[in-house]
Specification:
101 residues; alpha+beta; OB fold (Dihydrolipoamide Acetyltransferase, E2P); six-stranded mixed sheet; 2 helices; 36% strand
Length: 101
Amino acid sequence: MEQALEIIVETFRVRGENSASPVRVRPLAGQGLSTQLRVECSKSMRAQYPIGTLFRLDVRLIHRLGTPLLYAHHAAPFERVGLDEAYRFIDTIFGHADASK
């Protein structure tokens, strides 16, 4: 398994995906990861905050049945962050704060 990477993720409502969970998690843009990647993580994290909440989370890129995904252990710590803090984090770590692209 690859080394852990700390990134900003966001929750969103599933539309047309084959998933048992109506709330999914994806990386915020601007971190060198596709926003099409899904993050497997704590169900309670997704359930206790509204859709669109941003979190700082340690993830690992894995492949499950040939499909790449980001994995965070269900007991992994997470930190809720605001949009400004997310942009600062992305700018500091990845060198560009335009997370809208």
